[in-house]
Amino acid sequence: MRVEVRDNNVDQALRVLKKKLQREGVYREMKLRTHFEKPSEKRAREHAAAVSRARKADRKRAERDR
């Protein structure tokens, strides 16, 4: 990943870098890899995320159909 520093403005470049890392999911993955997660916990987390995505898709579909 590459970020350009313009006019020696390192603070702005750092903000851009952090935003890019967050969009890529690096922070989330670091948090998940910090501690061991049991396979059952991983399945439960992934299932909850899938349910959340499905509900969001249903809400958007219902809103679009109005």
Automatic annotation (TrEMBL):
<dbReference type="InterPro" id="IPR001911">
    <property type="entry name" value="Ribosomal_bS21"/>
</dbReference>
<feature type="compositionally biased region" description="Basic and acidic residues">
    <location>
        <begin position="36"/>
        <end position="48"/>
    </location>
</feature>
<comment type="similarity">
    <text>Belongs to the bacterial ribosomal protein bS21 family.</text>
</comment>
<dbReference type="GO" id="GO:0003735">
    <property type="term" value="F:structural constituent of ribosome"/>
</dbReference>
<keyword id="KW-0689">Ribosomal protein</keyword>
<protein>
    <recommendedName>
        <fullName>Small ribosomal subunit protein bS21</fullName>
    </recommendedName>
</protein>
<dbReference type="GO" id="GO:0005840">
    <property type="term" value="C:ribosome"/>
</dbReference>
<dbReference type="GO" id="GO:1990904">
    <property type="term" value="C:ribonucleoprotein complex"/>
</dbReference>
<dbReference type="GO" id="GO:0006412">
    <property type="term" value="P:translation"/>
</dbReference>
<dbReference type="Pfam" id="PF01165">
    <property type="entry name" value="Ribosomal_S21"/>
</dbReference>
<keyword id="KW-0687">Ribonucleoprotein</keyword>
<feature type="region of interest" description="Disordered">
    <location>
        <begin position="36"/>
        <end position="66"/>
    </location>
</feature>
<dbReference type="InterPro" id="IPR038380">
    <property type="entry name" value="Ribosomal_bS21_sf"/>
</dbReference>
